[in-house]
Target: Transcriptional regulator, GntR family protein
Amino acid sequence: MTDQDVTASSDVADLLSQASSAQERFQIMYSVLRDRICMLVYPPGTQLSEEALASEFGVSRSPLRKALQILEADGLLLSQQGVGTLVTEVDLQELAQVYELRLELNELTGRLCPRPPDRELETLFNGLKLRAERLIAAPDRAVFARLNIDFFHAFQQLTLNVPLQDVSEKLFYKTCRIWLTLIQEKDLPQEVAIFCGEIMEIANAVRLGDFQAAALIRRAHLSMGFNRLKTATPQSSGLESG
Model:
């Protein structure tokens, strides 16, 4: 992954044309659509057209429909009779308990089936540190969103516990849009600095092989972030992206 959005139509079409199986094509479509929703390429309330997406991706509507159905089960889409498929709204109150559960699961990441430290993992987090430094120098909402997703997946690699990874991923994608929808443009540099500071702290813990410390750092930052979100005023808790 890079700082750039990798969900552009041409990139997706290339990936799908190179896929070796129907399951791989499904996973590509599912992941791309999920990222577009969570990066607000498709803001809340957006109506998705099966016909347009099938044409864009160069696939039939049947495998695409499967991806949309799973995204609906994830709570990111909603099918309404006579209206179509819509991107769901983001409601902090509705997702508060999901966020609280994420706090506990992140701490478990440092204790359940920890992955043995290795050079590959250290290199991965060093790359994230470099991206964080660039983002601090030039705060950008889309780059922030991409880095947030990529950092989550890197953090997932600290544990080899597959059920924990699966549950954590579902919950992450339920809540990760909250930041983009609630952060006002004037507050973006501050939030970027806080988030990038977290990445650097965790990268240092990973370099030392202390995954429990990394997990505690992650939990602390999630808790502080959640409390900042809860204090957002009604005016700043609208669903504008900036």
User: Anything to note?
Assistant: Residues 48 and 85 are 5 Å apart (CA to CA). The chain has two domains: 9-87, 92-237.
